[in-house]
């Protein structure tokens, strides 16, 4: 008995074959060509080829499949009306792919200028770029599909006004975040301290909150408006290096010239040996107080950034205590001398 396929079945198999072929061609392009181009781009000094290769990542397979579907449409056993609808859908998905590529590319371009313009690595700019590009892309897709976007734009305008009134606090935080980024006095990665006492590294400046990672490895989430209206100490501006002060007191019987020489020797050794110390900095001391039981002074060292001060102080106090003991320099206990006057009998 001779077995044969119907005409519709043959056309359906042809359409399926063309679609699979498009998918395989896209897979080959993604695997052999785009990945190789990405490796080449990573070796060049020009940054935008890396941005473009990252934006196109994974799109060759998607576009190849869409092209295969478009070529296969005439072979599908469906009516002309269905074919027209499928054609518009394929075009809409192609435009969506272009929109995604554009959003990726713009994020990469803005991130490239982060060091000289704005800190684009924060989520607020990623979100704004995604929203802006996607809205424009969706409007273009609607226009391509024959949907009149004029009523949509009008509705967005009226609805935007209503949303703005309903979300005043959220919008206030959004604009506060934009202001924080624009003035560049607080950046992602900086170590800051708020007047309320919270301190740590800024991990992200979002569209509503700023996240701070404390030294205890806990996260503090603060509304942007609170930071914008707060007194903030930024320990990374104008530079990361900072002075490290240690308060010391010695006995009144001490030779102050010797104390100064010994203390500076220990401080220089700490600056050289510790990874967080600034080796080019010359430590010094300043006497400042005749206290009840000691002459007090400040030792000024220098650390590469805020958290380095803890290890520098730790090591300096240990070494100074040992050296004072060897040199016979006394760090006195708090004492008070009382003179009793015996009256006449």
Fold and architecture overview:
- With 345 residues, the chain is of the alpha+beta class.
- The chain folds into three domains: 7-164; 177-234, SH3 type barrels (Roll), CATH 2.30.30; 242-327, Alpha-Beta Plaits.
- It contains ten helices and eight strands.
- The chain has helices at 7-43, 48-55, 59-72, 80-112, 123-144, 150-166, 168-183, 224-228, 256-273, 308-327, and strands at 191-194, 199-205, 209-213, 219-223, 232-234, 242-250, 284-290, 295-303.
- The strands form two sheets. Strands 4-3-2-1-5 form a five-stranded antiparallel sheet.
- The N and C termini lie far apart (147 Å).
Strand order of the largest sheet: 4-3-2-1-5
- In total, the number of strands is 8
Overall geometry: elongated
Query: What is the ordering of alpha helices and beta strands?
Result: HHHHHHHEEEEHEEHEEH
Give the averaged pLDDT, no decimals.
Answer: 79
The assigned structural class equals alpha+beta
* Radius of gyration computed on alpha carbons: 35 Å
Q: If helices are DSSP runs of H or I spanning 4 or more residues, what is the number of helices?
A: 10
How far is the N terminus from the C terminus? Answer: 147 Å
- Main beta sheet: 5 strands, antiparallel
> What percentage of the residues does DSSP assign to strands (E)?
5-15%
**Helical content band:** 55-70%
Model regions low in confidence, pLDDT < 50 over at least 5 residues: 115-121
Instruction: Please indicate the count of domains.
Output: 3
């Amino acid at each position: 008995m001779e077995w044969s396929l119907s005409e519709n079945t043959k056309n359906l198999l042809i359409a399926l074959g063309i679609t699979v072929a498009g998918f395989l061609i896209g897979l080959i392009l993604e695997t052999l060509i785009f990945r190789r181009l990405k490796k080449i781009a990573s070796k060049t000094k020009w940054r935008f080829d890396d941005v473009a290769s990252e934006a196109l990542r994974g799109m060759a397979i998607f576009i190849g499949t869409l092209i295969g579907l478009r070529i296969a449409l005439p072979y599908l056993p469906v009516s002309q009306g269905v074919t027209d609808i499928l054609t518009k859908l394929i075009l809409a998905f192609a435009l969506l792919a272009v929109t995604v590529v554009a959003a990726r590319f713009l994020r990469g371009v803005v991130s490239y200028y982060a060091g000289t313009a704005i800190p684009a690595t924060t989520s607020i700019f990623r979100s704004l770029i995604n929203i802006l590009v996607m809205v424009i892309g969706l409007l273009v897709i609607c226009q391509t599909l024959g949907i009149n976007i004029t009523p949509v734009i009008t509705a967005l305008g009226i609805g935007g006004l209503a949303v703005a009134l309903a979300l005043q606090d959220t919008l206030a935080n959004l604009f506060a975040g934009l202001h924080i980024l624009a003035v560049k006095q607080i950046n992602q990665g900086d170590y800051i301290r708020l007047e309320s006492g919270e301190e740590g590294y800024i991990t992200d400046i979002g569209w509503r909150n700023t996240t701070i990672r404390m030294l205890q490895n806990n996260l503090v989430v603060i509304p942007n408006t609170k930071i914008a209206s707060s007194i903030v100490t930024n320990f990374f501006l104008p530079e990361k290096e900072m002075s490290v002060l240690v308060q010391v007191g010695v006995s009144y019987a001490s030779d102050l010239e010797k104390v100064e020489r010994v203390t500076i020797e220990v401080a220089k050794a700490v600056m050289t040996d510790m990874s967080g110390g600034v080796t080019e900095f010359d430590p010094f001391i300043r006497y400042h107080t005749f206290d009840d039981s000691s002459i007090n002074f400040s030792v000024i060292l220098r650390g590469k950034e805020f958290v380095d001060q803890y290890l520098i102080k730790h090591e300096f106090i240990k070494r100074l205590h040992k050296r004072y003991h060897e040199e016979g320099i006394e760090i006195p206990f708090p004492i008070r001398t009382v003179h009793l006057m015996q009256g006449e009998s």
